[in-house]
C-alpha cells in the first residue's frame, strides 16, 4: 500500500511543540559533526599495521584517544541540546566537550609524534584543541533559571523527569513494532503533552507532588499498554485493539493537558497571593501607590 509522504515539518508532521525548525536543524548539525569525529581517526588504525612496533603502538594509542574524544564530544553535545531545550536546567556535571577538546589535542599530538618530530606534534595538538573548540564550543558552565529554587527539590524533580523520559523513550521503541505510522504520530503527540507537564514541573518543583501520580503511575501504565498493544497489533492487525489504544491515548492526553493547565493556574494563584500579601505589608507601612506602578520616564 502506498504511503503519503510526510516530513517532520508537514502539517501532520512530528515536529515538537515549542521548537522551531531552526533549533532542530542546529541540533542535528551539531550531532552530525560529533558523529563524524568517529570516522576521522580510522586512517590511523589502518596505517598502524604498516609501521614498526613503536609506530604500531603510537598510532593505535592515538586512534583510541581520538575515539574517546569523539565519544565525550557526542555526549557533551547531547547534554547541551537537553540544556538548551529546558528553561530550567543545571549545567552538566562533567564538561565533556572541554575534555573531548583536550583529548583531541592529545590524540593528534601522539599521531604527529608517530609521523614526525615533537615540534610538528605540538602544532597538530594545538590545532586540534583550537579547531575542536571552534567547532563545538564550550560546555554550559552555569545553571539556567535556578534562582530562588530549592536545590533538594530540583534534584527530586530531575530524578522524576529522567524516569519519565525513559518511559517515553520505551514507548517510542515499542510502538515501532506496530508498523502503523498514524499510531506512531499519535504516540508522539501524547509524548509532547507529557513533556509540557515535565517542563512545567521543572520550572516550579513545588508542582511535583501534584504531578507525581501522572508522571509515575499513569505514565508507567501508558508505557505498559503501548508494549502490549504493539505486540498484539503486530501479530493480529486487530482494528478493535487499534481503536481501543487510540481512545486510551486520547483520554490520557486530555487528562495530562488538563492537569498541566491546573498546575499553571495554581502557580498563577500563588503569585497573586504573594502580590496581595506584599501590598498589604506596604499599606501597613503607610505606603500607598498613587498611580500605576512602573518605571519613571
From TrEMBL:
Segments crossing the lipid bilayer: 30-50, 56-73, 94-113
Region (Disordered): 1-20
The UniProt record lists the keyword Transmembrane: yes
Keywords: Membrane, Transmembrane, Transmembrane helix
Keyword Transmembrane helix set for record: yes
InterPro entries in UniProt: ChloroindolylP_hydrolase (IPR018770)
Residue ranges with Basic and acidic residues bias: 1-19
Top-level division of the source organism's lineage: Bacteria
Protein's name in the database: 5-bromo-4-chloroindolyl phosphate hydrolysis protein
Organism name: Profundibacter amoris
Amino acid at each position: 500500500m502506498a504511503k503519503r509522504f510526510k516530513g517532520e515539518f508537514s502539517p501532520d508532521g512530528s515536529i515538537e511543540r515549542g521548537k522551531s525548525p531552526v533549533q532542530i536543524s542546529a541540533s542535528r548539525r551539531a550531532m552530525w559533526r560529533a558523529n563524524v569525529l568517529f570516522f576521522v581517526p580510522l586512517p590511523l588504525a589502518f596505517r598502524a599495521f604498516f609501521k614498526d612496533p613503536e609506530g604500531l603502538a603510537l598510532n593505535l594509542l592515538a586512534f583510541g584517544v581520538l575515539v574517546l574524544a569523539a565519544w565525550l564530544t557526542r555526549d557533551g553535545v547531547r547534554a547541551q541540546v537537553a540544556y538548551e531545550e529546558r528553561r530550567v536546567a543545571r549545567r552538566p556535571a562533567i564538561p565533556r566537550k572541554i575534555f573531548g577538546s583536550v583529548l583531541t589535542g592529545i590524540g593528534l599530538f601522539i599521531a604527529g609524534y608517530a609521523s614526525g618530530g615533537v615540534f610538528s606534534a605540538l602544532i597538530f595538538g594545538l590545532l586540534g584543541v583550537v579547531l575542536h573548540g571552534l567547532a563545538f564550543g564550550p560546555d554550559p558552565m552555569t545553571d539556567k533559571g535556578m534562582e530562588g529554587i530549592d536545590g533538594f527539590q530540583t534534584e527530586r524533580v530531575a530524578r522524576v523527569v529522567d524516569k519519565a523520559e525513559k518511559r517515553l523513550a520505551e514507548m517510542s521503541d515499542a510502538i515501532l513494532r506496530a508498523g502503523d505510522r498514524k499510531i506512531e504520530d499519535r504516540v508522539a503527540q501524547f509524548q509532547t503533552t507529557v513533556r509540557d507537564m515535565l517542563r512545567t514541573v521543572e520550572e516550579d518543583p513545588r508542582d511535583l507532588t501534584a504531578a507525581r501520580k501522572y508522571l509515575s503511575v499513569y505514565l508507567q501504565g501508558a508505557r505498559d499498554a503501548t508494549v502490549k498493544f504493539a505486540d498484539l497489533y503486530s501479530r493480529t492487525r486487530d482494528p478493535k485493539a487499534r481503536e481501543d489504544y487510540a481512545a486510551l491515548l486520547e483520554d490520557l492526553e486530555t487528562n495530562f493537558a488538563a492537569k498541566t493547565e491546573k498546575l499553571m493556574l495554581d502557580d498563577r494563584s500563588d503569585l497573586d497571593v504573594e502580590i496581595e500579601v506584599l501590598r498589604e505589608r506596604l499599606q501597613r507601612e503607610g505606603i500607598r501607590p498613587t498611580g500605576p506602578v512602573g518605571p519613571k520616564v
